[in-house]
Amino acid sequence: MIRFENVSKVYDPNIVGLKDVSVQIERGEFAFLVGHSGSGKSTFIRLLLKEFEPTKGSITVAGRNLGRMRRAAVPHHRRNIGCVFQDFKLLPNRSVAENVAYSLRVTGQPPRSIRRKVPEILQLVGLGEKMSNLPDELSAGEQQRVSVARAFVNHPSLLVADEPTGNLDPDTSVGIMQLLYRINRTGTTVLMATHDREMVDKMRKRVIALEEGSVIRDEDKGLYR
Amino acid sequence: MIRFENVSKVYDPNIVGLKDVSVQIERGEFAFLVGHSGSGKSTFIRLLLKEFEPTKGSITVAGRNLGRMRRAAVPHHRRNIGCVFQDFKLLPNRSVAENVAYSLRVTGQPPRSIRRKVPEILQLVGLGEKMSNLPDELSAGEQQRVSVARAFVNHPSLLVADEPTGNLDPDTSVGIMQLLYRINRTGTTVLMATHDREMVDKMRKRVIALEEGSVIRDEDKGLYR
Amino acid sequence: MKFRFFVGEAVDSLVRNWVMSVAAIVTVLVSMFVLGIGAFIFVNLQNATSGVRSKLEIEVFIRNTASPDQISQLGDQIKAMPEVRSVNFVSKEEAMNRLRESMKGHEDVLDALSGNPLPPSYEIYLKDPSQIDGVAGRFYNNPIVDNDTGTHNGVRTGGETTDRVLQVTHYILIGGAGFVALLAVASILLISNTIRLSIFARRREVEIMRLVGATNWFIRWPFIMEGVFTGLVGATGAMVLFLLVQNFFVDKIINEMPFLGADTVPTFWLLLFIIIGGGLLGSLGSGLALRRFLKI
Amino acid sequence: MKFRFFVGEAVDSLVRNWVMSVAAIVTVLVSMFVLGIGAFIFVNLQNATSGVRSKLEIEVFIRNTASPDQISQLGDQIKAMPEVRSVNFVSKEEAMNRLRESMKGHEDVLDALSGNPLPPSYEIYLKDPSQIDGVAGRFYNNPIVDNDTGTHNGVRTGGETTDRVLQVTHYILIGGAGFVALLAVASILLISNTIRLSIFARRREVEIMRLVGATNWFIRWPFIMEGVFTGLVGATGAMVLFLLVQNFFVDKIINEMPFLGADTVPTFWLLLFIIIGGGLLGSLGSGLALRRFLKI
Ligand SMILES: Nc1ncnc2c1ncn2[C@@H]1O[C@H](COP(=O)(O)OP(=O)(O)OP(=O)(O)O)[C@@H](O)[C@H]1O
Ligand SMILES: Nc1ncnc2c1ncn2[C@@H]1O[C@H](COP(=O)(O)OP(=O)(O)OP(=O)(O)O)[C@@H](O)[C@H]1O
Ligand SMILES: [Mg+2]
Ligand SMILES: [Mg+2]
Question: Which atom of ligand 2 is nearest to the CA of A141?
Fold first, then answer.
């Protein structure tokens, strides 16, 4: 599903984001990405989305080489990846429901199915009553859950989550994790960057640990440390 | 230092932020504010800063009643509170150093002492090498640490932190917590909203638990749950 | 379906970002109103000066020896010239009457004359005064025209005055046209500037849209339609203002000075102007702005 | 100290938000340039039309019976009138010469005259042509003026033509002044609009500043200075453009038509205009915008 081959990313002027990373994640896997603050987790995820190009190396997602992907194909590529962003990236002027609906709209789904799916998924993350609020009117944790809902709603074949529980209390975190787990069980590949030691240790899934841009550990059924 | 008397905050149209909260925090105390996502922690902190007015009740900070405070006195009030915001609130067009310097500048500190203090504090949070980067060029955890540095740099008599470790790995979180602890030991009152169960359980400080806007628990040397 | 969605998006966005919408609409309105008033003044200036210019004439004096046939033949020739707007024949008697009148109270001078020495003449008014020299030249060598040998003093044109009035009006009109063109360019600049600014302010929004898989056109269409609406609303406002000014102010002037021949602009043309001008400006403005902020 | 900090902040912000700065500067530049050109055209229109208007005159014909003393006394009276710009005495001989010239080729008619029946006259040019009737009226009952009994045909004014030219230039000037005023208002609107937009786009930044304890004036000053700089830079650009146009274009016209008496605007006044206009506009623009977005 995901293959990084000797990928490096150096930001201007000379800041290392990733350093010679080679990782392969199979279809249907569940993997944690851990590491200190600034170790390159978000860089890894942003490269997957083709937000920018790697300085070196090649990235393949769902069998397609991102380096050779045409510009016009990028939106389609992104639709197949559900992404929970670390800073939520909600459209500030749209209601919660419209934010979630937007990622269905871009795929050209009919309004009727949009009207059905959006409340469903928002109920699932516990925001059934905040559907018509603007993002600004939500607590940080609620915004994070909107971002989670938006990433799920398309039933993407790859789900990437950048610290999706950073602003959530332990109970709500567990709820979201269960959701991710269920989604993974239906065949969706899940990659999750996290600092939540408790969670990682409990789940016992694959753990990829980054340190200053390099993979320092990659073990199945691993622990946070 | 902080006194909430029967404070309620109802957002438009009819969303309860806080409900009849009475809490007193003494000078020099260290208190955790915990609760589910959306339970009112950020509302509590924003009321302290006089970002908006409570719907009912009165708030006193450092002996001054916020309801009766003149508009012109609000900036001064805010300078005496160091605040780590949940969404960081960094000025997007200024470098890290300038962001931290700004809260010194508003107090009219001379440029020389600004040039001395800013690198010092950034070193302390582990960002000595990112001083001239823009916030956009930092990882989320690094941005959070800038926000922490900015809150400290003024040596305020009250330090309020809204989830200051949400985007930090456990090691870095411990570092920040030690910093908060040290600051508290010098006499600064510290109020910290958090979801970090491990941290709260380890520190054994006062814990104020909110649930749907009400205080449901308030105990010294408490646990997260 | 999709079209309706885009229109809905555009309207929503106009309402949500009303501060910026209002700013853009005000810019369109003000620019187009100024442009409209400028063009209006220019057109009416043209009318007024063409009134002045039509007074400029060529006088062709005819030899006393010419026969009536020759005279009327010359008249027909003149009438056949495409540059000529109207011709007026001044007979010997008419000429004497005019002289008599102009001498006011001293007509006795003329009574002393033996007969009428004044020649008959044609007064020629042209469609375009700038052609005076060309037309006048055709009479220089005509045998029945009362030229002294070697000169063509039998053909008189407005001369210096003509030239001067002509030049003044000419340059006023060139200046006016240049100024109106300048206004048009300025309007386009200012409007696209404002739309660009309001899209720039939302570049993060655009970035988020891209990240959740929206194609460029999916993002662009609502912005373009927003631009079109902005343009239409602004232009409509400009039209309403313009009609108000025309009714309350210009009509009054026209009544006072019918000779100015001021044209009021018909509503139909205004409407056309609005739909084409406003819509085009708005869509071009957003189109250009998007090209810059919508890379990839 | 503080002042330097604010200036630094303003400059930094101009550079950091260069897209918005450029937009604002372009708006100031375009608006002021258009306004300047408009005012320039207007002033020169005034000159040109006043040239036409100065040709309008009053002729006062004097009885042949008047003594030279009476004539020169009348001349002094006329010169003493405050409305009069200049007076020109036309003697009997001069009058005959003019008639002779105007009769072209038929001077023999005049040779038949016994003596010179033409009266001497004063040609009076006024400062303000609209006072023609008032001034002319003063000669209606003057005994040495060559009026027939019961009329005042010894006093001639431009009459209809005068009225018409007067009215046309009058309304052109009123229209021009109105239009220039409109341009000025439009400029102010557009500029404050743009500055407001660019501050609106940074309202979150302002909010953050407030939250870390900045006073209103601490936030405002850099914005105001930014507005002042924007205004100054834009106005300077407008001046440079204007001088270029003046040199390459207007000077040419002036050379071709010196009679237009076109004034070039001296650089000193332009500079003053820029400092006052640009700076004021910019600071007012940001001041107004801030009032809206800087509550508390
Ligand atoms: N746009 C950028 N320009 C320059 N440097 C950048 C940029 N984005 C990230 N970096 C740097 O690259 C490194 C890796 O950043 P990244 O965001 O991938 O970290 P992370 O593992 O997600 O950290 P966190 O847990 O704090 O979110 C950091 O040192 C960061 O400062
Ligand atoms: N501006 C607003 N308008 C309307 N409702 C709001 C607004 N801000 C907050 N709320 C609501 O008030 C409640 C309390 O929000 P608050 O931000 O205080 O929660 P929190 O405890 O900080 O949550 P989190 O842990 O997720 O940050 C939530 O239900 C939220 O949706
Ligand atoms: Mg990250
Ligand atoms: Mg919160």
Answer: 26
- Cβ–Cβ below 8 Å for B142 and A168: no
Task: Judge if D46 and D105 occupy the same domain.
Answer: no
Parallel, antiparallel or unpaired: strands A206-211 and A30-35? parallel
B99 close to ligand 2 (CB < 6 Angstrom):
no
CA dihedral of A117, A120, A123, A128, whole degrees rounded to 10: 60
pLDDT (tens digit, 9 = 90+) per residue, D143-161?
A: 888 777 666 667 766 544 5
Give the model's confidence band at C217: pLDDT under 50 very low, under 70 low, under 90 confident, else very high: confident
Which residues are registered as beta bridge partners of D13?
A: none
Tokens 């000053």 identify what position?
D221
Q: Over 80: is that where the pLDDT of A142 sits?
A: yes
Output the CA–CA distances (angstroms, integers) from residue C32 to C28, C36, D42, in the order listed: 6, 6, 21
**Count of CB atoms within 10 A of residue D70's CB?**
15
- Do both D167 and D286 map to the same domain? yes
Q: Is the pLDDT at D293 greater than 70, yes or no?
A: no
Q: Do D193 and C27 touch (CB under 8 A)?
A: yes
Domain-terminating residue out of D138, D157, D176:
D157
Phi, psi of C73 (to 5 degrees): -60, -45
B194 lines ligand 2 (CB under 6 A): no
Instruction: Report d(CA C218, CA A74) in Å as an integer.
Output: 13
For D62, the domain range is 57-157
Residue in A74, A136, A143, A158 to test binding to C, most C beta-carbons within 10 Å: A74
Q: Kindly give the distance from the C-alpha atom of residue B114 to the centroid of ligand 1, in angstroms, as a whole number.
A: 27
Q: Is A58 in the pocket of ligand 2 (CB under 6 A)?
A: no
Cα of B72 vs centre of ligand 2, distance in Å, is 27
Residue A171 · residue A194 · CB < 8 Å? no
Ligand 3 ion: Cβ-proximal residues, 5 Å cutoff? A 42, 86; B 139-140
What ligand is nearest to the CA atom of residue A41?
1
Under the banding of pLDDT at 50, 70 and 90, the label for residue C105 is: low
Amino acid at C78: I
Of D112, D167, D197, the CB nearest to C23: D197
Please tell me which residue of chain D has the smallest CA distance to C172.
D45
Kindly tell me the burial class for residue C183, based on how many C-beta atoms sit within 10 Å of its own C-beta (0-12, 13-18, 19 or more).
Answer: buried
Mean pLDDT highest for which of A18-32, C238-252, D109-123?
Answer: A18-32
Cβ of residue B141 lying under 6 Å from some atom of ligand 1: yes
pLDDT at C112: 64
Dihedral sign, Cα of residue D87, residue D91, residue D93, residue D99: positive
Q: Is B68 helix (H, G, I), strand (E, B) or coil?
A: helix
Which residues contact residue C189 at a Cβ distance below 8 angstroms, ignoring those fewer than 6 apart? D26, D30
ipTM of the complex: 0.84
Does residue B43 line the site of ligand 2, with CB under 6 A? yes
Number of domains in chain D: 2
Q: State residue C290's pLDDT score.
A: 76
Of C96, C129, C157, the residue that ends a domain is: C157
Average pLDDT, rounded, for chain B: 92
Helices (DSSP H) in D62-103: which residue ranges? Answer: 68-80, 92-103
Please report which ligand is nearest the Cα atom of A15. 1
Q: How many helices (H) and strands (E) does chain C have?
A: 12, 4
pLDDT at B166 over 60: yes
Report the range of poorest mean pLDDT among B36-40, C22-26, C38-42, D221-225: C38-42
Cis check for the bond before B13: say yes or no (omega within 30 of 0): yes
The Cα D130–Cα D168 span in angstroms is 12
Chains near A, with 3+ CB pairs < 8 A?
B, C
Question: A126 vs A120, A129, A186, CA distance in Å?
Answer: 10, 8, 21
**Tokens matching residue A72:** 């016009």
Nearest to D19 among C167, C172, C200 (CB): C200
CATH code of the domain covering residue C149: 3.30.70.3040
Distance B166 CA to ligand 4 centre (A): 11
